[in-house]
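Researcher: Structure prediction, please.
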Amino acid sequence: MDKGIDELLTRGVVDVIDRKHLEEKLTSGKKLRVKLGIDPTSQNIHIGRAVLLWKLKAFQDLGHTAVFIIGDMTGMVGDTSDKESERPMLTKKQVEENMKGYLEQAFKILDPNKTETYYNSEWLAGLGFLEIGRMANLFGLHEFESREVIAKRLKAGLRISSQELFYPLMQGYDSVAIEADVELGGTDQRYNLLAGRRIQPLYKQEPQDILMTEIIEGTDGRKMSSSWGNVINIMDKSNDMFGKVMSIKDELVEKYFNICTEVPLSEVEEIIKGHPKEVKMRLAFEITKLYHGEDEAQRARKNFEETFSKGGIPKDILVVKVSRDTPLVEILLKHGLVFSKTEFHRLDKEGAIREIESGVYRIGKHRFLKIHWE
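Model: Predicted structure follows.
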């Protein structure tokens, strides 16, 4: 098998359905339509989600058609595949606000001239009950209940809303709408990805193949999630990105190298034999380079060494002028130094937001702000 195809199907990949079938299609020279959908449940795409964008780009680089779907309709319903409680529905206004920069972020990775882009409200908004009923008839309630996270909630007596039954149908119909040959997703999306395979034959389409990647943990060791604030966003400034990578748990370094960088795996094997601090510095450099280029990554490394090795303050610290009666939480939210009021209160309670000298605040380990009060 071609080395590029082999790495496509193995690096960071947990499962492929149907692997033999997909291998045959990839080696046949057929141009495939490869689908990736992301719901705009927050304003930022983090590097955990970007794993799938890079995988989509790998298909694109092999000459296949990358189809990127922004789930403005599914985003309002909400996927609870990985949630231990019911996800609150977002409003149309919230989703519209969240998705404003999604294409810009996706095109940091994908080639915009070779990517088809859609919003799934284009086809989902027009579906009627009869059509939804036809798709729903393909699934049994016992299948939905057998999903691990749903089973846990049922056992705990937690509420499961009927809307949660609709989400797999909606994601599955996305595959019909764009005639997907392959769909990409994380392992937590397994049921939803399989829904596409179940629904497509109803519309005289061949079932899509599925490629599932590993889930990446965030800066606190839990699954990377915007709602937890443990994310490294692809639009983070280079210094922030470098610093956040340096804060991950040591046991995650090799996994990050394998999934979040393009360093050849043979080279990774040699790198991780080095001193742990230098290995992590190299990781932070490689990830920052992916999104900001080599020069910015070098500057971020130098800034980190000067600041955190010597206990100093960054040279390029953000400086703002604000009215003295402005709450600190509002200032930090406005400038992206905390993701939510919940994160602010958590950090504040932990003593992780401190004024280290007059007007200079340190937020967490690697975020700084200088305030000129007026």
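Model: The first helix runs from residue 3 to 10.
Researcher: Thanks, that helps.
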